[in-house]
Amino acid sequence: MTIAIVGAGLGGLALARVLHVHGMDAVVYEREASRDARGQGGMLDIHSGQRALREAGLIDEFYAIARGEGQDMRLLEPDGTLLLQEDTPDDAPLARPEVDRADLRDLLLDSLPDGTVRWGHAFVHAADGALHFADGGSAPYDLLVGADGANSRVRPLLTDARPAHLGHHVVEVGIPDIDRTHPDLAAMVGRGTYWVLGGGISLAAQRNGDGRVRIGLGFYNTPEDWFATSGIPFDDPAAAKARLIDLLPGWHPRFTALIEACDEMVVPRSITALPVGLTWPSRPDVTLIGDAAHLMPPVGEGANMALLDGALLGLALAAHPDDFAAAVREYEREMFERSTAAARMSADLHTLLASPDAARKMLAFFQPDGD
Ligand SMILES: Cc1cc2nc3c(=O)[nH]c(=O)nc-3n(C[C@H](O)[C@H](O)[C@H](O)COP(=O)(O)OP(=O)(O)OC[C@H]3O[C@@H](n4cnc5c(N)ncnc54)[C@H](O)[C@@H]3O)c2cc1C
Fold it and tell me: Which among 17, 27, 30 is the best mutation to test ligand 1's pocket, defined by most ligand atoms within 8 Å of the CB?
């Protein structure tokens, strides 16, 4: 019985690893040409996903690459008022440590036997028990697992649902080697996440393991074509930064100084999500994990859910090695309930971030008793 996983992201790799731990083989088809073909983005905070790493037999290796101090947080209002500062004590438990996405993906990749991941295989469609790839090749399968992310090409085999735009646009910028180039800004941002919220705009600056501070500027309640009308010239980084500063009227100069210090990388991201509570009638030969199954607003759940999906589907298949249909049903029953709760919470947090007084609301979210 052949298990084919499409997508070597966190979900697909966690599934392959848990199957391997239980003596089951799988093949992962990934469209990227190699593990280094594309930057893997910034930091992830891993909380519920730690269970997946435990099931994968990798929890000690994970703690070795996780950054506990990345749990530090500062929350401010656009006028510069500091509402909350949390510094993580050295002996604090690693409840939500930050990890570099590339390091976590490397940990999973290195834990798999050579040849498990077939790079350069872009899945196009499935027919008659075979996967078909963009280069004309094909491969047989008994169970096809779509772990191919937000714009999954496997998803249409199960549902017509598509991600919808959330009226939220993010522009990602960053300051390289901040300790050396801008020590004053480094001290301001601190060791973890530095959040400025208000007026339908968010600035989230986060220290990465390589000394870069990544900054996401989020613009909420914006129409779907906002990037075209925003006046941000993405092909001219210096002018783009100047325009971003214009889009922050009344923001304290220490925040606009962060934007001024950024390098030439200016990346636009449109934020979309699948409907909350998406399900489909179970099929014995196809299922979905991770963003392919339940893309959510990016508020810290997606990677954790993808890891858990992969691990729990792996455990279900190991428990029913001769009955994939039963394994898929068992996995989907639990996944639908868990991901619906996480998607609902993520949608609520997203609405909160979009509100004019988001910083005060976020403070109440973190400190419901006002302490
Ligand atoms: C800016 C940002 C910050 C985030 N921060 C956090 C965080 O702090 N905590 C958290 O929990 N989540 C976070 N998330 C969400 C998280 O990154 C995703 O939910 C998670 O990566 C989903 O994993 P996945 O394995 O489902 O998909 P992906 O990681 O997207 O992997 C999908 C893989 O499939 C491959 N693929 C796609 N199409 C094909 C095809 N046709 N054929 C073959 N291969 C294909 C892709 O190349 C990719 O390797 C963040 C997201 C963003 C955008």
Answer: 30
Alpha-carbon distances of 347 from 23, 192, 360, rounded to whole Å:
38, 24, 18
Q: What is the pLDDT of residues 6-59, one digit of tens each?
A: 999 999 999 999 999 999 999 999 999 999 887 767 899 999 999 999 999 999
Judged against a pLDDT cut of 80, whether residue 293 lies above it is answered with yes
- Residue 70, ligand 1, Cβ within 6 A: no
64's tokens? 């070795």
Q: Does the residue 89 lie in any domain? A: no
Confidence class for position 174, pLDDT limits 50, 70, 90:
very high
Q: Which amino acid is at 61?
A: E
**Is the C-beta atom of 100 inside 6 A of ligand 1?**
no
CA distances from 61 to 23, 41, 58, 104 (A): 21, 20, 5, 10
| Phi, psi (degrees; rounded to nearest 5) at 216 | -105, 120
What CATH number is given to the structural domain containing 252? 3.30.9.30
CA 65 to ligand 1 center in whole angstroms? 20
Residue of 31, 101, 170, 350 to mutate, ligand 1, most atoms within 8 A of C-beta: 31
Binding residues for NADPH: 38
Q: Helix, strand, or coil here: 79?
A: coil
3-state SS, residue 332: helix
Residues 153 and 248 in one domain: no
